[in-house]
DNA sequence: TTGTATGCGTTATCAA
DNA sequence: TTGATAACGCATACAA
């Protein structure tokens, strides 16, 4: 660690100008300044308006959002709770949220819980103290009661990707049923006769639950076409058992000369499985086993992995719009917006791949 | 999009309790409540304290940070400007920032400019209006003047990863010179006799500039050992020319029976190059050409790519600490904290890889 | 068209 | 040990 020799800017720390300063500088009252700021420009004489503009420019005045919010009762802050920014899904949703916020004049207060349930609670509390006008929640273990305090306080809540048991509120996410069906049928169409659906513990996370159920619902009828499947639950913190189970299934299928495909329920699972396959089968693991997943991460193209791309950007945008409508006073029943996923077919599941049927 | 049938929670929208409500409920004055909130617990009679606690619990009172901030002049908000959350580097730095903020009682106000220079400006303005106490900046095109308004206003600024021309302020980042030297020497040690350093346009981004210079400074002396190298500039928005140049170099090297390695200056570049190599050489591109990079992204392990891992978490933590010290009133010259990177050797650059010398 | 006075929820100053 | 009261920076009802 080096020290630079130049000193910091001298302690000329000038206090930021307030509306009072501007009023004095412009030789008028605070009200006029306030009017100018709020665009009530028609009621101001051109002459006064000019003086105000000059004063603002000269003092580099910026209205204090805090004070503003205190007075009008809304500060344009929207809370965004994210379970895991490490998951590209979250980042992409965030982009949509940011864009929509910008367009509608909100400022997202982003809280990243880093997969810690306790953090989620703390952040939600914090959002409360900052008096956000609404919250968008993509959490892991937040329970209904916690969110109810928002709803009850008149703070609209929008859920992203996963619903929360016992809570009836706006929610937006992937149409999981359709997405899983799409993917599963694709695998069947490509000639795979056995599909292993790999998912994290799903009791408590609705999207995982729905995806798993959708998988079983889709694979069931496919038995008529000779296609079967089963679910493997993987705990990313202790993946060994699940990975061993996958290996066993793969081996058995190979013995019976079957064609098996692995279907990861999301990107983190896919990555973990891919790493394992690479370890077990070497660099050309993709020649040996077919892997697909929900979530189109940046490395999917590199790995040539078929995926279902989520409409992440739109999910984020929609979430903000839902919030905005409530904030504008719309009263209506809770809504559910399920957006369709898009199948991105790559080499991993193409008929000519794998042991080249 | 479906409509759920349950209505939203009834419009019982109860206003959040204020300090006045609590005072009334506890049968005392606001001052005592304020004292309790600020931990001046010693000056309160146990009896009164209990009543206050009860009132707070009953009303589920949460002090309004906005009002607090307005009064005390500091709101515990720290601005964090990120050029690109799509880059895992940023997310990791963010994790460090969040952890440190939490530990020190700050709330990070995260602004994601999504690689748009204009957004950076707008967000910086916004941060100003929210009266953040300090800012951490990892931007693309922010210029000195813009940041000066913060410094001059007494708002400390900490730069992350890249410095800004003409601005003397605290800065935290990777020790680029050491990292590039480490990586380059590793390549030489592994028997590569030619290294192509691939970097985005670097005039305006200090870290890229420094890395490029460090590469040349390191590769120069290695000529004695028969190792040469050159730089290729890649524009991710229009990568074709650079990729063609890479191909040409690769072909030439192969003709001369040389062993060439590609060295990407960061993860986004590495991904782009890897995608291209896969396209050109097929799924086993890694058998054909050696690629390494700065930044240890999640797919690096999957691709078996050697990298230099940045101490991202510590960078974020350190940035907040720098800020905190200034906010606590420490006056000192601008500091520069350069943290060491860690070489993560994988198959891509091992001697036995590639055309197996 | 402009300005005065009051209050948003909190903390700080002062007096009791 | 406690409690009025006056700000903080701004927006609004109201008066001029």
From TrEMBL, chains A, B:
<dbReference type="InterPro" id="IPR028082">
    <property type="entry name" value="Peripla_BP_I"/>
</dbReference>
<protein>
    <submittedName>
        <fullName>LacI family transcriptional regulator</fullName>
    </submittedName>
</protein>
<dbReference type="Pfam" id="PF00356">
    <property type="entry name" value="LacI"/>
</dbReference>
<keyword id="KW-0804">Transcription</keyword>
<keyword id="KW-0805">Transcription regulation</keyword>
<dbReference type="InterPro" id="IPR010982">
    <property type="entry name" value="Lambda_DNA-bd_dom_sf"/>
</dbReference>
<keyword id="KW-0238">DNA-binding</keyword>
<dbReference type="GO" id="GO:0003700">
    <property type="term" value="F:DNA-binding transcription factor activity"/>
</dbReference>
<dbReference type="InterPro" id="IPR046335">
    <property type="entry name" value="LacI/GalR-like_sensor"/>
</dbReference>
<dbReference type="InterPro" id="IPR000843">
    <property type="entry name" value="HTH_LacI"/>
</dbReference>
<dbReference type="GO" id="GO:0000976">
    <property type="term" value="F:transcription cis-regulatory region binding"/>
</dbReference>
<dbReference type="Pfam" id="PF13377">
    <property type="entry name" value="Peripla_BP_3"/>
</dbReference>
<feature type="domain" description="HTH lacI-type">
    <location>
        <begin position="17"/>
        <end position="72"/>
    </location>
</feature>
């Amino acid at each position: 660690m080096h020290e630079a020799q130049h000193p910091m800017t001298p302690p000329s720390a000038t206090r930021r100008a307030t509306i009072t300063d501007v009023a004095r500088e412009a030789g008028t009252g605070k009200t006029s300044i306030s009017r100018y700021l709020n665009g009530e420009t028609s009621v101001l004489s051109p002459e006064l308006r000019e003086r105000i503009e000059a004063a603002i420019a000269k003092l580099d005045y910026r209205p204090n959002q805090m004070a503003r919010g205190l007075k009008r009762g809304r500060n344009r802050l929207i809370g965004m709770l994210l379970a895991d920014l490490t998951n590209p899904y979250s980042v992409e949703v965030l982009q949509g949220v940011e864009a929509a916020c910008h367009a509608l004049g909100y400022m997202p207060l982003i809280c990243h819980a880093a997969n810690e349930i306790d953090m989620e609670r703390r952040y939600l509390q914090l959002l409360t103290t900052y008096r956000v006008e609404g919250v968008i929640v993509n959490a892991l273990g937040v329970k209904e009661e916690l969110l109810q305090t928002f709803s009850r306080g008149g703070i609209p809540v929008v859920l992203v990707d996963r619903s929360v048991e016992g809570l009836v509120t706006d929610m937006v996410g992937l149409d999981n049923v359709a997405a899983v069906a799409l993917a599963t049928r694709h695998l069947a169409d490509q000639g795979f006769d056995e599909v292993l659906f790999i998912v994290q513990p799903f009791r408590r996370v609705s999207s995982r639950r729905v995806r798993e159920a959708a998988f079983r619902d889709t694979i069931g009828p496919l038995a008529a076409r000779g296609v079967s499947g089963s679910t493997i639950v993987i705990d990313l913190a202790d993946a060994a058992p699940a990975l061993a189970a996958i290996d066993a299934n793969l081996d058995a299928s190979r013995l019976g000369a079957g064609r098996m495909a692995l279907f990861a329920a999301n990107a983190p699972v896919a990555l973990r499985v891919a790493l394992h396959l690479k370890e077990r089968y070497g660099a050309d693991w993709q020649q040996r086993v077919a892997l697909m997943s929900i979530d189109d991460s940046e490395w999917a193209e590199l790995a040539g992995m078929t995926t279902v791309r989520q409409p992440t950007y739109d999910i984020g945008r929609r979430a903000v719009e839902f919030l905005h409508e409530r904030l504008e006073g719309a009263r209506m029943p809770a809504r559910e917006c399920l957006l369709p996923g898009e199948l991105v077919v790559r080499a991993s599941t193409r008929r000519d791949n794998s042991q080249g049927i």
